[in-house]
Design brief:
- There is one protein chain.
- By secondary structure, the chain is mainly β.
- It has no helices and 16 strands.
- The mean pLDDT is 86.
Length: 188
């Protein structure tokens, strides 16, 4: 059995019949009372974010998760369709299981987290940073570069990202998929 000393970032726990991933955790120690372990948790099978506190040494229930590489194929009425790169088996997942669906490109490789107890897909994670092409952007105003001014730009996936004024239509840019922010311009 696992206890609170085994908690780590990214671990998936079963609490009250739902699955949560550990976003952040820590320990509070006081001179008089026993130590407490706290964690910020994000729902895997629901959209809730909670904080939980345990007494040090309490039992926790981690869920074993397998990370597999899948390829994004297309989106239709059934949801987002992915193919296993090893077995070529296809699965369709709902939009709420994909962490940043607005940045999915055809043929893009993603990680699918699978619950090993039920063999059910739990979530889809895109790479932290991806390269996309800017399909539409207003031209920047010359001389307006003294401040970090941003302008909206549409990328090939259809998402809108705020980019610096020097980024033009047709250029490749790197985006952080976790925050949806521009990182840098990429040379072809």
């Amino acid at each position: 059995m696992a206890n609170t000393s085994d908690i780590s970032r990214g671990m998936i726990l079963k609490l009250d019949g739902s699955l949560y991933t550990v976003v952040e955790f820590g320990e509070n120690k006081t001179a008089r009372a026993a130590a407490k372990v706290w964690a910020k948790l994000k729902g895997v099978d629901n959209s809730r974010s909670i904080e939980k506190t345990w007494n040090s040494g309490d039992t926790i229930y981690p869920v074993r998760v397998e990370r597999k590489t899948f390829q994004f194929l297309y989106k239709d009425d059934t949801g987002y369709n992915f193919m296993d790169n090893e077995t070529f088996e296809q699965i369709a997942l709902a939009e709420n299981l994909v962490d940043a669906p607005q940045f999915l490109k055809d043929g893009q490789e993603v990680s699918v987290l699978i619950n090993t107890e039920t063999e059910q897909p739990m979530s889809v994670e895109l790479p932290d940073k991806i390269v996309v092409k800017v399909t539409y952007s207003e031209p920047g105003v010359k001389g307006d570069t003294a401040t970090r001014t941003l302008k909206p730009a549409t990328v090939e996936t259809g998402a809108t990202v705020n980019v610096p004024l020097f980024v033009n239509e047709g250029e490749l840019i790197r985006i952080n998929t976790k925050t949806g922010e521009y990182v840098e311009r990429v040379k072809e």
